[in-house]
């Protein structure tokens, strides 16, 4: 099998194409909620103080889901006593739902940004 010798123009075009592809991949990362990049993840305990709102949404394909906004108090770690709101999504697939009621203790999945501040909080499970 013979290989074709690459001239300098083809090499330059190839390197530019690879560089553009790498730049496109780096730029396409989604840092949701316009928050800073997550640099630390942890689990904390929390308590559901109230369900602020709950609304039903119907997705494409006939699947339905409910979105709850819940107010939680962090009851462990450095942030103990801090009160926050977070979303709790409930879908037709009950295997992954975490149904919460006022007073429930929950395990919270917490993302922190590079300043050490809480960027996102999600209910991971009931405790």
Short structural description:
The chain has one helix at residues 8-27, and strands at 38-58, 64-74, 83-91, 105-113, 118-126. The chain is α+β, with helices and mostly antiparallel strands and 127 residues long.
Keywords:
alpha+beta, 16% helix, elongated, five-stranded antiparallel β-sheet, 127 residues, 5 strands
How would you characterize this protein structure?
Strand 1 (38-58) and strand 2 form a beta hairpin. The chain has one helix and five strands, in the order H-E-E-E-E-E. Helices cover 16% and strands 46% of the residues. 11% of the residues are buried. The chain has one helix spanning 8-27, and strands at 38-58, 64-74, 83-91, 105-113, 118-126. Strands 3-2-1-4-5 form a five-stranded antiparallel beta sheet, with no helix packed on it. With 127 residues, the protein is an alpha+beta fold. The model has no long low-confidence stretch (mean pLDDT 85).
Distance between the termini: 65 Å
* Strand fraction: over 45%
Helix content: 10-25%
Give the overall form: elongated
How many strand units? 5
Architecture blueprint of SSEs:
Elements: H1 8-27, E1 38-58, E2 64-74, E3 83-91, E4 105-113, E5 118-126
Antiparallel strand pairs: 1-2, 1-4, 2-3, 4-5
